[in-house]
Amino acid sequence: MKKSPSVKTALPGPRAKALIKLDKTYVSPSYTRVYPLVAEKAEGLWVQDVDGNVFLDFTAGIAVNATGHCHPQVVKAIQDQAEKLLHMSGTDFYYKPQIMLADKLGSLAPGKRKKRVYFGNSGAEAVEAAFKLARWSRTAKPKNPLPIGGPRSSAIHLKKDCCC
To answer: Which of 6, 25, 105, 140 could form a disulfide with 54 if both were Cys (CB 3.0 to 4.6 A apart)?
Structure first.
């Protein structure tokens, strides 16, 4: 991939326009996209669209870290993990890497009190967990605000699906 900005077509390009049109037909309009980039591949801080245009990626994205796109060490870690286990829900079974990460995070947190770690998928889950945990801390016993299987029960019951 070229490592400098390169605009080869009018934006969005013809392939991007066709995909955006198809997207509008089948994908929920609740996805709020600010600009018409149809990404095809990326490396480091560079992203290439389906028409071959190359852009400097200034976005942080969702669920990413600051290593850039396709960092070799991150790719290697993903490949190594994929050979062992692709999906593990820490709310259904015990998983050694999750336990070890919780131990490490607890040891790094300030203060002398015992630490516990909550893993979640989103800010919404974190907020719901905070409300539930605050309620538990006052009553010393769990209270389910919604029945199992009720609306949003996966978040209320601290359901988490994670690959690593």
So the answer is: 6
Q: Which domain holds residue 109?
A: 96-156
Res 46 pLDDT > 50: yes
Judged by phi (left if over 0) then psi (alpha if -120 to 50, else beta), residue 138 lies in: alpha
- CATH assignment at residue 37: 3.90.1150.10
- Burial pattern 63-80, b for ≥16 Cβ within 10 A else e, equals eeeeeebeeeeeeeeeee
Same-domain check for residues 67 and 19: yes
Query: Tokens 């209320």 appear where?
Result: 156
In a domain, residue 8? The reply is no
How does pLDDT run across 12-37, given as a tens digit for each residue?
999 999 999 999 999 998 888 888 99
122 is a domain residue? yes
Pair (101, 68) in one structural domain: no
Whole-number Cα distances in Å, 16 to 20, 32, 37, 38, 148? 6, 17, 7, 6, 43
CA distance 82 to 76: 10
